[in-house]
Amino acid sequence: MPKNSLKYAIVLVLLGVVAYNSVYFRKLDEVKASSGSTSKFDPVAYAQTFWTSRLLPATSSATDLGTLLTLLKTDKEKAIDSYSHALGIGNIRYFLVKGEGKINAISDNDITVSLLSGETIKLATEYIFGNAVRDASGLIKITEFDNTMDLNNVSTELNAILRKKVVSPFRASAKVGSTVKFVGAIELNKEHLHLEYLEVIPISVNSH
Amino acid sequence: MNSQRFIFLWFFAILLAGSCTNKSTSNQPKKVAVIVSTLNNPWFVVLAETAAAQAKELGYETKIFDSQNNTALESDHFENAIVSGFSAILLNPTDSDGSIVNAMKAKDAGIPVFCMDREVNSPQAATCQILSDNYSGCVAIGKYFVQSLRTKATDAPIKYVEILGLVGDNNTWNRSKGFHSVVDHYTNFKMVAQQSADFDRNKAMEVLESILQAHPDVNAVFCGNDAMAMGAYQALVAAGKAKDVGVFGFDGADDVMNSIRDGKIKATGLQSPQTMAKTAAQFADEYIKGKRDFAKKIPVAVELVDQENIKDYSTPKKR
Question: Periplasmic binding protein domain location, by residue (chain B) (predicted)?
């Protein structure tokens, strides 16, 4: 009899342990909140971190725009393979470039700059849209994202940072005749290459 | 005697088991199925045929299945493909929700599914989804829309109409969101009407005709695809407003490319079914050869075709 009761006691304890570990209760609100927080992507925070800790440090490795333009005219394939990036596939490619020149003209939509290498380009100040800033550095990998809308939102937020931190102060201080040093992003169609209307979206600008 | 019978039965069992294995796999080429939503629309014919041709070029036997925009028929095609021993499926889904269960069936059978052009609303169902970058394409259209309408005075009021595609289709909203991500920055741009015309030319014409009754002074119309842009243009011609109102489309259909050339339509976003189809076939080949780390979704660039760069696209693309 005591043997049996010992057996029952052990079985009961075991059952208790199993039951305790296999069933638990949580408030539905907590479950919803926690599942939401793990799956929800925050494009504002991502863009801010990417801007300060990845994109700005990468500006030091930007390609010289004059050199790139020469290479694009002489060996397009090599220039595109070596210096362009894009998260998607297709003809649209983005380049991270740097340059120096003199401000020629200031309009509502852009600032015209004559580069030291001789070409004339436009620094965009009004239409800051698209994926050039997100993709030009090649630092963001498509495999990081399951959802393309997250990628679109990263572009929107990066462009918003750029408008506030770079474009507005530059537009306010730019003067015709002053010298400008910039790093920026350009978008080119590799099948239909046009280098004559080159528009650079500025990522960092110093004018004096 | 018993042991002899046992050995005989044992050998018989081994031979029986051996006869059940598929001997054809080692000699015959592997097979890739192309399951397409419809072959009634030339755009999807190009998509399916390019995918099949590319897979064939890579050494696979291919077969195109037409789902006739019917999810149940698509389900039959999947079952067929699974039973017939296809190694990969290149899918243009009939329905972004309804096709999930079909793609999952293939996945459970160990067959990878690569979506082309249209997506399924489940990251688990497909190995990779290769989709037009509708959002970014419409960002480019939105930018051109604002640039071309802000020429006179930057803050002059602009009234425009948006004609949407099928409201249940993800592409409709990705296009609309991309467009508005630019245009909504400009407070003088006022959308006076936003209505669906189901991607249909005749419906778009009817929709715009009735909108023009209430808003005869619109400056521009943005349409979610080129068929609707052509319908909208027809409505404007009938109302005698074709020269005053700019029409913007999306797709890169030949008739709209020609209309841009003639100055009738302002711009469109050129999609590339060929790029999507070829990429899907290449990815299937890579999967069969052992690659597993595919991005869940890969955007394919959409090119803005406008009044300035239409000369670059002088020869209509073969569709």
Answer: 32-291
In a 10 Å sphere around its CB, with 0-12 CB exposed, 13-18 middle and 19+ buried, how is residue B25 labelled?
Answer: exposed
Residues A161-191 pLDDT 10s: 999 999 999 999 999 999 999 999 999 999 9
Q: Which of A176, A199, A198 is nearest to A126 (CA)?
A: A199
Regarding an ipTM greater than 0.90, the answer is: no
Write out the residues of chain B at the interface with chain A, using a CB-CB cutoff of 8 A. Answer: 123, 130-131, 133, 135-136, 139-140, 142-143, 146-147, 154, 174, 177-178, 181-182, 272, 275, 279, 293, 295-303, 309, 312-313
Of A86, A109, A142, the CB nearest to B295: A142
**pLDDT tens across B168-194, in order?**
778 899 999 999 999 999 999 999 999
Give the C-alpha separation, A127 to A159, whole Å. Answer: 10
For residue A114, the SS3 value is: strand
Read off the pLDDT of residues B233-280 as tens digits, 9 standing for 90 and up: 999 999 999 999 999 999 998 999 999 999 999 999 999 999 999 999
Contact state of B299 with A87 under an 8 Å Cβ cutoff: yes
For residue B273, the surrounding DSSP H or E stretch is helix B273-288
**B232 and B260 share one domain:** yes
The number of domains in chain B is: 2
Domains for chain A: give ranges and CATH numbers: 40-207 (2.40.50.420)
With beta carbons less than 8 A apart as the criterion, state whether A183 and A123 touch: no
Q: Which of B135, B275, B305 to mutate to test the interface with A (most CBs of A within 10 A)?
A: B135
**d(C-alpha A158, C-alpha A130), whole Å:** 10
Global pTM?
0.82
Mark whether B109 and B182 lie in a shared domain. no
CB contacts, 8 Å: B178 with chain A: 152
